[in-house]
Specification:
mainly beta; eight-stranded antiparallel barrel; 1 helix; 11% helix; Lipocalin-like domain-containing protein
C-alpha cells in the first residue's frame, strides 16, 4: 500500500513539476483587436480606448476607434527577449497625450491568441530633488488575435 501511495505521489509531483507555461514572450504576426488602457494613479478609474492593430513582418498599423488623436499610426517594430521596440513613422500635432502613440519600448507578454504590451519609461531625473511627483501613468495595450 505504501508503495502505491509513493508511486502515486511521485507521478503527481512529476506531472505538476513538468507543466509547461502557456505564455511565451513573442510578438506573433496577425491582426488584433483590443484596448489601450491608460492608468492614472490620481484617478480611480483607468481610461480605455478601443483599437485595431496589425503586426506583420516587422511592420505595424494601428487604428484608434472613437477618439480624436491619434486616430491611427504605423511603423516598424523589433522584438528581443520579452521587449518590443516600436518606431512610429507618423507626424502628429502637439495637442494630445503623445504616450498614446504606439512608439518606444514595451514589455511583451503573449501566447497564441493574446498579446499585452506595457510601455516602459526611462527613469525620470530631476535637477530639483524637491520636485518629485508621486503620480504615475501606465499605458498598456491588451489585445486578442482576430485571425
Amino acid at each position: 500500500m505504501k508503495a502505491k501511495i509513493s508511486i502515486l505521489l511521485f507521478t503527481l509531483g512529476l506531472s505538476l513539476g513538468c507543466k509547461k507555461s502557456d505564455k511565451v514572450d513573442v510578438v506573433n504576426d496577425g491582426d488584433y483587436t483590443g484596448l489601450l488602457v491608460v492608468t492614472n494613479s490620481a484617478k480611480s478609474v483607468p481610461s480605455t480606448y478601443p483599437i485595431v492593430a496589425s503586426l506583420k513582418n516587422g511592420r505595424f498599423n494601428i487604428t484608434y476607434k472613437n477618439i480624436g488623436k491619434p486616430s491611427a499610426g504605423s511603423g516598424t517594430y523589433t522584438f528581443n527577449k520579452g521587449l518590443a521596440v516600436f518606431v512610429n513613422e507618423g507626424a502628429y500635432t502637439a495637442d494630445f497625450d503623445w504616450n498614446m502613440i504606439l512608439n518606444g519600448e514595451y514589455e511583451v507578454l503573449s501566447n497564441a491568441t493574446d498579446l499585452t504590451l506595457k510601455k516602459k519609461f526611462k527613469p525620470a531625473t530631476s535637477e530639483n530633488p524637491a520636485a518629485t511627483s508621486y503620480a504615475y501613468l501606465e499605458y498598456e495595450y491588451i489585445l486578442k488575435k482576430a485571425n
